């Protein structure tokens, strides 16, 4: 996107950012991470405190919930990289800067509460978790589409909703009411963040429909969760998908389609030229993704049937 267009968009959209920030602040509820953690379950670990080292028997969570919580937490841990990336796109001045700082402060709570929960309940190996955090953060974070405002805003519109879905489903799979309540609280934040970005990009569609449509298509076709750089992410993502926490069907039906429907991208009459080409590409890609999701569901159901049959023998 030409720098002149990006600059104009940023100027034209600042009143929208201010309005959406006010709306966000009016809807966001103050909450405190320490109130969502079962501190009474905690005890000292080995090391300087001379407590008990972690063992797998300490965890009451199943593998699916553990792996998803680890991915969710390591993703939240990379917040410094996300803050830098979003600040490079949105800037640090005026309403843009105020939003970036507010978003960062709210996101930081998510990492705090999830780590405290995992540590206190001994749900995961704290040594392995810390080593994974160090490795992941040392790898750093780079936005796929650089400093393009339209691409950045499109990405977070989908990513915040994807994160909400992943948190809520992780809580449900955990079998722990405390974990489910905690992640529902985190997911509520993510939903408000999604609404902010979704409304911002809707306004961009009104100003620059073709350029915005191209950005949306590029992001949908290249979409990866921000934690894709986590060591062992592919194996973890397979476990998460097989558990129905986050899979292709959820990505297609519960993330992409609702946001695209809200923007009305397939109903707009003001999209022409490359924007129209991008829209055709998007429709084709969604069809392919839908077919892939169906094949994955069929294979998963067949696998579950085989496992159930073996268990019944």
Structural class: mainly alpha
CATH T-level topology? Ribonucleotide Reductase, subunit A
The helicity comes to over 70%
Number of domains: 1
Question: What can be said about the biggest beta sheet?
Answer: none
Number of helical stretches of at least 4 residues? 11
The first-to-last residue Cα distance is: 61 Å
pLDDT averaged residue by residue: 93
What sequence of helices (H) and strands (E) makes up the elements? HHHHHHHHHHH
| Percent range for β-strand residues | under 5%
Q: Evaluate the radius of gyration.
A: 21 Å
**CATH fourth-tier homologous superfamily:** Ribonucleotide Reductase, subunit A
CATH architectural label? Orthogonal Bundle
| Shape field | globular
How many strands?
0
Overall description:
The chain has helices at about 5-25, 65-75, 80-90, 95-120, 125-140, 150-175, 175-205, 210-220, 235-240, 250-265, 275-310. The longest helix has about 40 residues, at about 275-310. The chain has about 325 residues and is mostly helical. About 35% of the residues are buried. It has a single domain (about 5-310), classed as Ribonucleotide Reductase, subunit A, CATH 1.10.620. It comes from Actinomadura viridis. It holds the Pfam family FA_desaturase_2.
